[in-house]
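This follows on from our talk about sequence and fold. Go ahead and set the record down below:
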Amino acid sequence: MDASDAESVTRALAAVVEQHGRLDAVVVAAAPSAQSLDASRHADPDQVLSAIDAKAMAFLRVANAALPIMTGAGYGRIVGVSGQNAFFTGNVTGSVRNAALIVAAKNLADAVAGSGVTVNIVNPGMVSASPSAEVAPGRGGESSPDQIADLIAFLVSPRTGAISGESIAVGHRVRGAISL
């Protein structure tokens, strides 16, 4: 599916329901890598808007198409993958695109509270095949693809119905900072 196109998203989810009879979980992890952002344009409104569309709005398109199916069934799990750039300054584009995803997911989670549907966000730090156990002050911890996948698998499992509206770090959340 093309998450930049609402009709493509609707068609893809309808095909899943048609083929399998239900939609239990959706994970939205596709977005351009933070390394693909032009650091010299970190506060350029056009780059910021493009990055928000590619990450947060893509998540919203998929979630908005999935929610009626899931709430109608009384069950569902939606997980978005954001990133710890949401908690750092120094790159407006990186911060805003991730923060927008976290805020959007929390709003959706609150809107479907009590319906049997959960919406959560996973926030990896730097992704490495062999993450370091050390976490420097003012930095997030590293995480491996397997660690990220393990958290996502847990969040889409039927046992997590009491966890919704959360933004959960993989690797250590920024050392030395409190996020309320």
